[in-house]
Each structure stands twice: as C-alpha cells, then as structure tokens.
Amino acid sequence: MRKLARHATITDVAALAGVSVGTASKALNGRGSLREETRTRVKEAARQLGFEVNAGARSLHSGRTYTVGMITTDTIGRFSIPVLMGAEDALGAGQMSVFLCDGRDDPIRERYHVKTLLSRRVDGIIVTGRRTEARAPIAPALPVPVVYAFISSTDPDDCSVVPDEEGGARKAVEHLLAIGRTRVAHVTGPEHHHSARVRSAATVARLAEAGLSLAGPPLFGAWSEAWGRQAVGMLLAGGTTFDAVFCGSDQIARGVADALRAVGRRVPEEVALVGYDNWDVMAQASQPPLTSVDMNLEGLGRTAAEMLLAAINGTPSPGRHARPCHLVVRESTTVPLLPA
After folding, report:
1. Where does the HTH lacI-type domain start and stop, copy by copy (predicted)?
2. What distance in Å separates the CA atoms of residue 51 and residue 213, rounded to the nearest whole number?
3. Dmax over Cα atoms in the chain, in whole Å?
4. pLDDT for 113
5. What is the C-alpha to C-alpha distance for residues 222 and 231, in angstroms, rounded to an integer?
6. How far is the C-alpha of 94 from the C-alpha of 285, rounded, in Å?
7. Per the confidence metrics, is the pTM higher than 0.70?
8. Is the pLDDT of residue 62 over 90?
9. Across 9-13, 138-142, 173-177, 286-290, least confident range
10. pLDDT at residue 3 above 50?
11. How would DSSP label each residue in 227-268?
C-alpha cells in the first residue's frame, strides 16, 4: 500500500526558515513586530513546503474572520462588477474573501443583508451601486468599518471613494479643444441625475474658461441610444451648428454616431464625438469606435478595499475621496493618417 504524503506543519516551516514556531506563526498571520526579512524568509519557506495557514486557526489567533461583505444596488452589474473585481484584487492579497449581496434598492433587503453579514462576523463592509450620488448610511453605528465605493455616503464621517466625474468631463472638453473643435454640443442623461448634472456643469465651465459656450443648451434625456438619435434630430432641426458632440454616456454617444451617419455627417471628419464610461461593449462596437472617459472602476474598487483594510487595522480615512478619470482616445475623434 502506498504511503500517503504527510502535510507540512508549522514546525516544518519554522525549521526550514531557521526560526522558532512562535515566530513562524506570527510571520504567517501578520502579527508581532518582526523584521521584514524574517517575514519574507518564513513566507518563502511556507511556499516551498506548500504550507497553507488554516483559516479557522488564523481567526482564533486574530479575532478576525478575514471576510468582507459587499452590498450593491446595481442589479445589472455594469458598475458594481468592475468595482468588485478591483476590491477582490486588493482583498485577495490579504487572503480575504468577499460575500456579495444584492440590495436591489430595497431598504428592507439591505437591512437583512447587513444583519446577515454581521452574524457571519465579517471584518468590514463595502457598499456600492449604479449611481454616484450620495445616499444615507446603510445603517447607524455599525460595529465594523464601512467604505462606500462609486456611490458616497451623506455622512461626512463615513469613507466614500468616488470617481472625479467633473475632472473626467473637463478632460473630454480639453481633448476636443486640442483637436480644434469650438462648437461643442452636449447630450446627456436625465437632469435629475447627479452624474448628468455634474458632467454638464463641468463641460460648460471648461468651455467658458476657453472663452467659448456650448453650441446650444445642454440636452437632457435618457441614458439610451434612442435618446442619442433623437438629440441629433433636435440639433439639426434647430439649426444648431456644431463640430463636436460630448455625450454623458457611451450609450448616448453610440446613438449619436448612428444618427450622424444616417444623415451623412462624417465622424470624426465633420463631427468629433466623445462618450463617457468607456463601456467596452458600447465604445468599441460603435462605428467608429468611441473616444470615451474611463472612470477606472477596478482601480476605484482596489482603493476602496485598501481603505477598508486600513480601517480594519485601526486607520480609518473618513470623508469623500475622488479618484481621477482618464480619457481613452479612439477613432471618433482622430482621423487616421493615410500612407504617403
């Protein structure tokens, strides 16, 4: 009968690293005041031996479960999934697991999820959703740290990590100005929507700094391709002269591109076009592919998770933390160079 291989133990790790069992335990569980060289040597010994720290034992030693809850109101996942991926990148480095809960914009369901996560003794909670406007805190006086990601909390003492939507809109306008466009129309989402208002105001302000104004008033409507098509009809019917359109979302921009093509207006030769969100399925499938503002949602999720880990370890970061957006330039604003 073949003899089963013996699993490596903490004693084996300590022997290979040349330290005591107590020191090896502290190094692997992130406790104690050890030199970084010692921690590295112990972790390398554990890797060589294939030793895995027992999660139950680690919890008993530290009083933590190494789990985090994430509550989202984004049922489609358009915004929350990239945030979750970024958060998992950061939490995975700390060997932490995530419980994902769908709140569906239902306060009763949210309270149930909070109660369930606390019963599982999570070390902290990340709250996210599909809109950036501030919301009421998910619950009062929770016993664990909470970080709001993409959305923000109305309580200034809470930690909120949000995209700098204003800065993203300004970068879009600056790009249009840099390629010589001076008659910029703006088509965006519902006027009651926080993101639509912020992006529109930033667009108007940046043009004013350049001594320009919008080509007609901002057009508020739905976050849809259909609205983008309708908006082009309104611009043309009203006799608006424009050489660029900055849209509040990629869905709107794709509709604008379709409508401009239908009436024979070439993009970008006659009309440059910029979207917002850098949603691959929209931006890259558009004809031509869209230049778009990317909110770097994965990076935002990583930052939120890192701030949550810091809060769990006793270093909270209250307040609203805005992360920069960046512009992804594609063919809707750049005319390709032809070979000589």
Report:
1. 8-62
2. 64
3. 89
4. 95
5. 10
6. 37
7. yes
8. no
9. 9-13
10. no
11. HHHHHHHHHHHTT---SEEEESSHHHHHHHHHHHHHTT--TT
